[in-house]
Amino acid sequence: MKFFLDTANLAQIKEAQELGIIDGVTTNPSLMAKEGIKGEANILKHYVDICEIVDGDVSAEVISTDYEGMIAEGEKLAALHPQIVVKVPVIKEGIKAIKYLSKKGIRTNCTLVFTTGQALLAAKAGATYVSPFVGRLDDISHDGMELIGQIVDMFNYYGMGTQVLAASIRNTMHIIKCIELGADIATCPLEPILGLLKHPLTESGLKKFLEDYHKLNG
Ligand code: E4P
Questions:
Q1: What is the 8-class DSSP label of residue 82?
Q2: What DSSP state is assigned to residue 168?
Q3: 189 CB less than 6 Å from ligand 1?
Q4: Which residues of the chain have pLDDT under 50?
């Protein structure tokens, strides 16, 4: 399973890239705002900065909600860097825009997916990725992970090439579940990924190895 880092924070992206554990980055307008990136020129430059740090796909989201606006933005974003994937919301105009962009060879990430029906329409339109939001479903007492399993099964059953990019991943157990269910990618902050390393037997085992070494070697 691949990992995308779900942030627009350049320091965190550098840290994860140097660890050698990430395969791309996802951003959204809220994550860009969190970093204080404002104004079109700064926003576009920030996407290029991210592409120059990370090896892999970088999702950049359109802010238009009409078809013409989305395709114009999508073409502009895609022209920024070969690693850019255009992120488009799963609304009627968005599906049409994904169809247009995919026909032009521009890769897309269909976002804000909360049902299998939405994922099916995105895949039929030619989306490279669909992003079902796990944490936000959990937040309203729905099983976000169940949706990941259903979409993985649907794409496998129908032989659809769209990849399942599990988004809104909030903790390490979410990641473990994504692995079990066969998600293609999980996008999350660095902290839950690092949580995968934690095990008390690793910590106590390492402590003992070092104690035994130092007993003889000082
Ligand atoms: C990434 O593609 C999504 O926009 C992101 O994972 C949403 O996460 P959140 O629900 O924690 O805001």
A1: T
A2: S
A3: no
A4: none
68-112, pLDDT tens digit by residue? 999 999 999 999 999 999 999 999 999 999 999 999 999 999 999
Amino acid letter, residue 214 = H
Q: Return the structure tokens found at 194.
A: 């690092």
User: Ligand 1: does its nearest atom lie under 6 Å from the Cβ of 26?
Assistant: yes
| Long-range CB contacts for residues 69-74, cutoff 8 Å, separation at least 24 | 70/94, 70/97, 71/97, 71/100, 71/101, 74/101, 74/106, 74/108
Q: What is the DSSP string of 21-34?
A: --SEEE--HHHHHH
Tokens of 130: 């669909």
Q: What positions carry a catalytic annotation?
A: 87
Question: Measured in angstroms, how far is the CA atom of residue 188 from the centroid of ligand 1?
Answer: 8
DSSP 8-state class, residue 128: S
Distance 54 CA to ligand 1 centre (A): 19
Q: Are 171 and 192 in contact (CB under 8 A)?
A: yes
Residue found by looking up tokens 């690793």 in the block = 202
Q: What is the H or E stretch that residue 90 is in?
A: none
Name the 3-class secondary structure at 86. strand
